[in-house]
Amino acid sequence: MPKPLPSKYFTSPRLFGREIELFFGQGWVWVGRAEAIAEPGSYFLRDVAGESVIVLRESPGSVRAFYNVCRHRGTRICTAAEGNLGQRMQCPYHGWTYGLDGRLLAAPHMPAKFSRDEYPLHPVKTAVWDGHVFVNLAKRATALERHLGTLPGKFAAWKMRDLRVHERIVYEVRANWKLIVLNYSECLHCPLVHPALNRLTDYLGADNEPPTTSYLGGAMAFAPGVETMSASGRRRRDYLPGLRQEQRAKVFYYAILPNLLLSLHPDYVLLHSLWPQAVDHTRIICEWHFHPNEMSKPDFDPSDAVEFWDTTNREDWRVVELSQLGIASRAYRPGPYSEHEELLHAFDKLVLRAHARKSTPLARR
Ligand code: FES
Ligand SMILES: [Fe+2]
To answer: Is 29-140 assigned to CATH 3.10.310.10?
Structure first.
């Protein structure tokens, strides 16, 4: 019987640093939503694998990202977490000034032979999928489409680009980032940990897809009479437009590695993004996204969805924190997985394969 990863993968700062490089420094990382940078010049900063990245709207149809590193003497250019740059960004040190396309526009006091063309900001690969912005720091990144595989087709009906965030809650969880992914990928814990959730779906009824190297997930059908994941199981909102009957009858849970947990409901979408801070500390940003038609209704009240998942989140964070504590014990030896934990074993294998890689694209720079 397969067993979970040894404890060092959850406790070693060295292995943690390697995972940050392997998964966040070389993979497609979810950084935010395109709606957050709707206007040209608007931007947000994200910390990706220890790098400050400026993600900005260059033009109505173009999202770009750059290392937040001045080409003169390296100074951080942007410091506010988000805002609007106007048409250019200026380094606060000596005033080197860059366009939204990263070109160096002005560099005061440089000699005549200095060529501004040779010093654009270092670009970061960026791609947008249905309103989700991803970046990839790798020099030779595969296309985001390859990473996402069949998901864009599978989830097209939710039209996620049309949805808007209504609520965002940030959690500081004292657990390794992989424990969050592992916990999300099984419902064996649901009867004990989530009594309210467990009334809405059959905890043994997950219809999981064969795992891939970039995402793990599946669907769970609602119990009779249940229409969505909420405290009552009743649906206060219209179905998202375009969903077929079978898509209305389930909740879809997908962990898109390394850092997006995407939960598609018939009437809203829930996102968790994971931001590892230390080997035993993960910041989790949870967002609830709704259709603008619903949000504009005078009686729009999403508290059923927000409170339900906030409660469920806290139940999950409690057990993953307990798990982290026990895994750190000298007495701990991984016990066997059950057959309902097949996604977890697949994830473990993927982590081990990543660790076994010899060189990294960044190492070749
Ligand atoms: S370090 Fe940026 S202008 Fe000098
Ligand atoms: Fe859970």
So the answer is: no
Count helices and strands in the chain by DSSP H and E runs: 10, 17
Atom of ligand 1 nearest to the CA of 95: 3
Question: What is the value of pTM for the model shown?
Answer: 0.96
Instruction: Compute, in angstroms, the gap from residue 189 CA to the centroid of ligand 2.
Output: 6
149-356 folds as Naphthalene 1,2-dioxygenase Alpha Subunit; Chain A, domain 1 (3.90.380)
Please provide the distance, in angstroms rounded to a whole number, between the alpha carbons at the two ends of the chain: 41
Kindly give the distance from the C-alpha atom of residue 220 to the centroid of ligand 2, in angstroms, as a whole number. 13
Backbone angle region of 41, left / alpha / beta, with phi > 0 → left and psi within -120 to 50 → alpha: left
Q: CB within 6 Å of ligand 1 — which residues?
A: 70, 72-73, 75, 91, 93-96
State the distance from the centre of ligand 2 to the C-alpha of 202, rounded, in angstroms.
13
Dump pLDDT digits (tens) for 187-223: 999 999 999 999 999 999 889 998 899 999 999 999 9
Percent of the chain at pLDDT > 90 equals: 95
Q: Whose CA is nearest to atom 1 of ligand 1?
A: 73
Residue pointed to by tokens 């969903």: 243
